[in-house]
Amino acid sequence: MTSMFDGYRLGSLTLPNRIVMAPMTRARATSDGMPTPSTAIYYAQRATAGLIVSEGVQPSLQGQSNPRTPGLHNDEQVAAWRPVTEAVHADGGRIFAQLMHAGRVGHPETVGHHPVAPSAIALKAELFTGSKGLLPAPVPRALSTREVGGEVRVFADAARRAIDAGFDGVELHGANGYLIQQFLSSNANRRTDAYGGSIAGRIRFAVEAAEAAADAIGADRVGIRVSPGGTTWDIVEEDVPRLYSALIDALAPLGLAYVHALATTEDDVLIALRKAWPTAFIVNPGGQIGPTRTDRTRGEHWLANGADLISYGRAYLANPDLVERLRTGAVLREDDQSTWYQGGDTGYIDYPGHRL
């Protein structure tokens, strides 16, 4: 029987175990999108993971969602990421950058740009903007057909910058209500051109973004995260099994490193996607974003159902030594939710691990 502590070959990488640190927003970057020395400490502390996927990194200023999140759209940001990736590699780890374009989950008060999206339909939510606090989400500007191609290229450009910054690869964030999932959805995407309407139209942006990133840096260094049927940020998807079956079938010929699926739909739907996908399949058992911390039992459930790798998010916040804790059955520390996005080092790099 496959164990979470068995090694795994992911593209050109040899992973010492099958545990993945999932991407989590921490809001610890500088105001101009630079990771800091504490960022290097944070990820290096967790380098025993088979693979780390970074917090969401905006591939363009237009694509930024939250204040104090890092970017990969200029040379200064690339240089600021290098000490982070070097620290992870020095401690024997592997790290992918998650490229997260916010689409309509953005606000002009955050970055000075009006958000863009598949259609001019606002999400029903308030967004944190920094100094002005929570404000209603604005109606985004609908991208023209020509502009959609430009947003595809943004992912390719950021993928090149990620490799230049020392990342081992990139993960396209196609989950949790951000731009790629907005194109997949039936409520945020009301387009009548080639990027909307039918399932073939709604999956087109995701496929083109993945193809562009793969062409830029090599398919074996590109993954994509999905949340089939997920409703985060006011997303509605119709006929989830057919939609994601079509997406998997369209992505499969590209030879990507992996699909990273959140357990946001019925088990049999995810199992069918696993069977149809030809390379590594990562499952995050936690499903929707929320307060639940996933344990070893849920991870083993998905390994038994065919997943190759298991990702953990919240459990990694207070347990930088999560691999060893899961291996030995040690009690997991509780994290302090009040410190998730508050900035500073408290609740960030001060949780002791086996190296501290």
UniProtKB/TrEMBL annotation:
Residues annotated as domain NADH:flavin oxidoreductase/NADH oxidase N-terminal: 4-329
A Pfam family annotated for this UniProt entry: Oxidored_FMN
Highest taxon in the source lineage: Bacteria
Entries under Gene3D superfamilies matching the protein: Aldolase class I (3.20.20.70)
Coiled coil: none
InterPro entries, sorted: Aldolase_TIM (IPR013785), OxRdtase_FMN_N (IPR001155), Oye-like (IPR045247)
Name of the protein this chain belongs to: Alkene reductase
CDD domains per the UniProt record, alphabetical: OYE_like_FMN
